[in-house]
């Protein structure tokens, strides 16, 4: 298990890796000689924090720590993963590996973020080349799940397997590229569309904005959830991919593309593209564009999660991992008092026009607390998959105070009744400063997901639930228990 990672190079990609790692509870040490490296990295970490507040409904893990160091040796000391994200020059990377190997643990995994240099070339001068892999991500690393895993001729197969397991565990979709090739797979595709795009702009066929609009309003939306081949399989209709290949294959011989050629890269082309790009997006700062990009990526992945498709499946699996990680075992619970079942910072999009959390999100907080309590007593994903769960049949919420975006809250839960089919919960939503914001009283019934009828829970669930109910019965009844709508205080 990796708990400490080193980042060598704190640019856009290095900072993105830092953000994803600390969001997964991994402590990091960073070396970057640039004077403004810390400030630039903090801007990326701030954007990532904002995005993760909205990416998933699960409670976030305890963040890993961030520490800048004055040398490579200090950064890699004790690290189990070393992420190299220095400039794309083979000589620089090889000199960095030489420094790393002087101080790093012999079994530390070294992962290069290179977008095109083959790992066999990277590891050519290493003393222990078997531990070097390429782990090529996409920007923003903290949101986009894909990472290309590539080994060189000297890379140990065990290191590839270790990397595949690790990156999947931090919410990514690792793809093992089994044959070395310059630029790997993803950048080969990107280079093709980039090359053709340069010709289309140079020849005056369209502007940068028109080209971007064609991508983002057209095939980009299809690619976001089906990729290339699945998209064309659908285009083939009922006859499928074979029909599509027969119908459109001959056009591959037509002289439509400039892919084997590139326009002259001169000042005129640079000025043309720069001027059009400035007109297109110059009214936004780069930080604003990053936040717009992140908001859209969160929304797209959330939509795909609802449909159980593409990147949404990766997010769903990661979210399940977070929920399971956040669930306490009954042995860890102090049943002599209400149980903390939820804590989070209020996301910006949970608020209304007054910047206060809207009423539907109070219910969201209590629903998340109920889910967390269910996991504590063993009603987790495995139990639900076997056909049992609790359904909420009645709810009463009292709204007592307002809370704003980015403010911390927590829910404390009491079991009012927990026997047989019934689970009666009373939640209290507090601001971190102690202000009681709302209460939620909920009656749940245990249900067979096969018959959809109420039934007793499994014996092991009751064995965990009933002692908590008995202990909470000794507590004073919470204020508001059993109230009806409009009842006088």
UniProtKB/TrEMBL annotation:
<dbReference type="InterPro" id="IPR013328">
    <property type="entry name" value="6PGD_dom2"/>
</dbReference>
<dbReference type="GO" id="GO:0005737">
    <property type="term" value="C:cytoplasm"/>
</dbReference>
<dbReference type="InterPro" id="IPR036291">
    <property type="entry name" value="NAD(P)-bd_dom_sf"/>
</dbReference>
<dbReference type="InterPro" id="IPR006176">
    <property type="entry name" value="3-OHacyl-CoA_DH_NAD-bd"/>
</dbReference>
<dbReference type="GO" id="GO:0006631">
    <property type="term" value="P:fatty acid metabolic process"/>
</dbReference>
<dbReference type="InterPro" id="IPR029069">
    <property type="entry name" value="HotDog_dom_sf"/>
</dbReference>
<keyword id="KW-0520">NAD</keyword>
<dbReference type="GO" id="GO:0009437">
    <property type="term" value="P:carnitine metabolic process"/>
</dbReference>
<dbReference type="Pfam" id="PF02737">
    <property type="entry name" value="3HCDH_N"/>
</dbReference>
<dbReference type="Pfam" id="PF00725">
    <property type="entry name" value="3HCDH"/>
</dbReference>
<feature type="domain" description="3-hydroxyacyl-CoA dehydrogenase NAD binding">
    <location>
        <begin position="5"/>
        <end position="179"/>
    </location>
</feature>
<dbReference type="GO" id="GO:0047728">
    <property type="term" value="F:carnitine 3-dehydrogenase activity"/>
</dbReference>
<comment type="similarity">
    <text>Belongs to the 3-hydroxyacyl-CoA dehydrogenase family. L-carnitine dehydrogenase subfamily.</text>
</comment>
<dbReference type="Pfam" id="PF13279">
    <property type="entry name" value="4HBT_2"/>
</dbReference>
<dbReference type="InterPro" id="IPR026578">
    <property type="entry name" value="L-carnitine_dehydrogenase"/>
</dbReference>
<dbReference type="GO" id="GO:0070403">
    <property type="term" value="F:NAD+ binding"/>
</dbReference>
<comment type="subunit">
    <text>Homodimer.</text>
</comment>
<keyword id="KW-0963">Cytoplasm</keyword>
<keyword id="KW-0560">Oxidoreductase</keyword>
<protein>
    <recommendedName>
        <fullName>L-carnitine dehydrogenase</fullName>
        <ecNumber>1.1.1.108</ecNumber>
    </recommendedName>
</protein>
<dbReference type="InterPro" id="IPR008927">
    <property type="entry name" value="6-PGluconate_DH-like_C_sf"/>
</dbReference>
<comment type="function">
    <text>Catalyzes the NAD(+)-dependent oxidation of L-carnitine to 3-dehydrocarnitine.</text>
</comment>
<dbReference type="InterPro" id="IPR006108">
    <property type="entry name" value="3HC_DH_C"/>
</dbReference>
<feature type="domain" description="3-hydroxyacyl-CoA dehydrogenase C-terminal">
    <location>
        <begin position="184"/>
        <end position="249"/>
    </location>
</feature>
<feature type="binding site">
    <location>
        <begin position="9"/>
        <end position="14"/>
    </location>
    <ligand>
        <name>NAD(+)</name>
    </ligand>
</feature>
<comment type="pathway">
    <text>Amine and polyamine metabolism; carnitine metabolism.</text>
</comment>
